Amino acid sequence: MKEKPYVSKHARKTLRVFVEKEYGADADAVWKNTIRQYKRFLKNAPDYGGRKSPHFTQIYDAMFLLAFCSTAPKEHTIEELEPVSFEIFMSSFNMLGKVFSAKRKWTMDLLSVVFKNSLDKDNKHAQDYPADFAGICEPYDKKNGIVRYCFTRCPMADFVKANSLGKWMPLMCNCDHIGLGKIHAGLIREGTCYTADHCDYCIVSEDNPLMQQYELVRNEDGLLVSRKKNQKTINYD
After folding, report:
1. Within 13 Å and on the Cβ side, how many CA atoms surround 127?
2. Other beta carbons within 10 Å of 211
3. What are phi and psi of 70, to 5 degrees?
4. Cα 121 from chain centroid?
5. Greatest Cα-to-Cα distance within the chain, rounded to the nearest angstrom
6. What does DSSP assign to residue 138?
7. What is the DSSP letter of 81?
8. Which of 68, 107, 124, 225 has the fewest C-beta atoms under 10 angstroms from its C-beta?
9. Which residues sit opposite 234 in a β-bridge?
């Protein structure tokens, strides 16, 4: 029984290591159940364009992780699985952090170009595959070093809603904060496509004065969100 090749080797290896550590002699059975569920997900999922999708790795790796979460014999917690999620989706930022730092102006300038070009590709692809990512990029605030854009459609948010898997949505979203932190950047995000009509990204250096106005809290859905420090919040950590 083989997984659809859309799942990256890195995701398979990362999750397999976790499964073997957690389940020992029962690991093979857990793994087979994960693959069966993943194939069921694929059968019922919208057409994202397969490998044509600019985000095919993220989409199908997330679907594979969700297949494990929804069939695992143990009731794993978000906090328990967040390191696995980060390794699957954002581990490249460990290496990027050795080269790039948002504290340097040229890194923020580069990020503004990278994210704009990425979103342009997303929107072009979404014209043929409307279930995939789409969004809006705001002009780069070069003076204040602020990169802003938002996703107006997130296939993973739609997928978890359609399959009643919302409890696992933080595994796809929370690692953004950790990954950007590796390059000394801060993410100010007050909502996601799971809880609102868009997922906002406001990216600045970690020492930008704007970062001092916000605190990172875990909301009732387990999602890490930014809240103004003078706004009344409930911290669920």
Report:
1. 5
2. 18
3. -85, -10
4. 18
5. 57
6. P
7. H
8. 124
9. none
